[in-house]
Write a structure and sequence with these properties.
Oligomer: single chain
Number of helices: 14
Strand order of the largest sheet: 17-14-16-15-19-20-18-21
Distance between the termini: 41 Å
Helix content: 25-40%
Largest sheet: 8 strands, antiparallel
Number of strands: 22
């Protein structure tokens, strides 16, 4: 291939990426506006005519031999028992190949009942196929709420638990910290109830479905509450100098940085509990914020990379946010305060690093992205040591989560590989729902004895590797499963070869 041919192919690929991403962004935005902020198309889907399942961003897909949607525990146990290979799938809000299989794909979308609610003890037992948005609506009807939510409510409860979902919080941050018991179906199709005294309980939480199918969960909820969300555009140096005081002052805090260029400002999001009633027309306020994010992140940043106008667009974007968001605050019911509905089509790499190391890690990530002129949103969140999982991004320590979320209009393969090296160096622990090239060696280095304990539990629940696909094999064994090669296809965004594994350096 000549140099000219290479450049033409590269330009054509970039144009195709942008066209596909903008088409999906536009379709979701139109649905979002027409439904008054209630609906988007951000969910995994199984197309029965084609026999293809795809994730929320249409960047991963596979053709399972069968797609099962059981409605009873007996059916779930039978399907698991009779399958040679099986992966359970939830809402499809994944950024990696963990759900993919050419064996049995088991969806819990019809296993969604709220089984019991005790309004006195505030304990709730529920089937785990339920989407978070539906669970929180039922809880609100009974005067209850979850203590923790992440940034989307389109996910199934089983998916959230299997990736040890986190939010951001001074006093808490993990859904798993409020789990009282769970019901798990192992590879033999046997269901049993597990409690915190059981090692398998902790392995299943955050276990990415490798220990079995989580079918029911009992959660400790609390009385319903309201949240005042405030948005401010603040100086980066001020955040660095005052981060401890900021986190101590507010119940929940996150930051949105623009990586790839130097900007003096950063967006700070703050949630605090309040006895004030929800703001009138709060849904319109929320729509305004989400549509602004879509404009900046979903369109402007991708166009800036194409036209080589990164500095100008990044600073204009922050200026637009300062004009439209700065100082604005809105009171939401808890179920509306944390999650968003509208997302631009993007990829995600996320690790939790020790809190004491987070600023040095962030500085190195910023410097690398500026050197490469790679534009991306970087979200930064915080949690205390409250997870009940054996493995996960925030287990065993106070944590700062660093997430890169570039538009899929650009190829992030090489940048993700290099940034992952930086995150490993600073003691990062992987978020299992996000992009990664880590394998079992890296996992063992991240988690030490926790990884050994998890492996024992995983082998006990699934000695023959029924729940193992290629992604699970790489993450937990570094050995491809015998006769388990997936026929899955993925979008052009992930077609580039993954760089060879490198040892973790101190």
């Amino acid at each position: 291939m000549s140099f000219l041919e290479y450049q033409c192919r590269r330009a054509a690929d970039r144009i195709e990426r942008i066209a596909r991403t903008w088409t999906i962004n536009t379709a979701n935005t139109v649905v979002y506006i027409l439904s008054f902020g209630e609906h988007v198309l951000h969910e995994g889907r199984y197309a029965r005519l084609r026999g293809i399942w795809s994730n929320w961003s249409r960047s991963f897909e596979s053709q399972p031999a069968s797609f099962e949607t059981p409605e009873t525990e007996e059916e779930i146990c039978r399907i698991v028992r009779e399958s040679t290979r099986l992966r359970a799938v939830g809402g499809g809000h994944t950024f990696n190949a963990s759900p993919l299989t050419n064996g049995t794909m088991l969806s819990l979308d019809r296993y969604t009942k709220v089984l019991s609610i005790d309004e006195v003890t505030r304990r709730v037992r529920v089937q785990t196929g339920i989407r978070l948005r539906d669970l929180t609506a039922v809880l609100l009807d009974h005067g209850l709420a979850l203590s923790v939510q992440g940034s989307t409510d389109a996910q199934s409860l089983a998916g959230l638990l299997s990736t040890d979902i986190h939010g951001t919080g001074r006093d808490d941050g993990f859904l798993s910290s409020n789990v009282l018991s769970l019901r798990l179906v192992d590879a033999e199709g046997r269901a049993r109830t597990l409690y915190p005294k059981d090692e398998m309980f902790h392995a299943a939480l955050g276990g990415l479905g490798a220990c079995g199918v989580i079918t029911e969960v009992e959660i400790q909820c609390e009385s319903a509450y309201n949240l005042r969300k405030s948005v401010e555009i603040v100086e980066r140096d001020w955040v660095t100098k005052n981060i401890d005081a900021i986190l101590e002052e507010h119940k929940h805090v996150s930051f949105y940085y623009i990586g790839g260029v130097y900007t003096e400002s950063v967006r700070m999001n703050v949630w605090d509990r309040t006895v004030e009633p929800p703001t009138s027309l709060y849904r319109l306020h929320k729509m305004r914020l989400e549509l602004t994010d879509m404009l900046v992140s979903g369109y402007a940043l991708g166009l800036a990379k194409l036209l080589d106008l990164s500095d100008l667009v990044a600073n204009l974007g922050l200026g637009f946010m300062r004009l439209t968001m700065n100082g604005h605050s809105t009171v939401y019911p808890a179920r509306e305060g944390f999650p968003r509905k509208l997302f631009y089509r993007h990829d995600e790499l996320e690790y939790g690093v020790p809190y004491d190391a987070h600023q040095a890690c962030l500085d190195e990530v910023f410097a690398y992205l500026e050197e490469k002129r790679f534009l991306t949103i970087i979200e930064v969140r915080f949690t205390p040591d409250k997870s009940q999982s054996l493995l996960g991004p925030g287990v065993g320590r106070r944590t700062c989560f660093i997430e890169l979320a570039p538009s899929l209009s650009v190829d992030s393969t090489k940048v993700f590989a290099d940034v992952e090296e930086i995150l490993w160096k600073h003691g990062g622990q992987l978020h299992f729902g996000k992009a990664t090239r880590a394998g079992a060696k890296e996992m063992a280095a991240m988690y030490g004895e926790r990884f050994t304990r998890f492996q024992r539990a995983r082998h006990a629940a699934d000695p023959r590797g029924k729940f193992v696909n290629d992604f699970i094999a790489r993450l937990f064994t570094d050995v491809a499963p015998a006769q388990h090669t997936e026929t899955a296809t993925s979008g052009a965004e992930h077609a580039a070869p993954i760089p060879a594994f490198q040892p973790i350096t101190a």
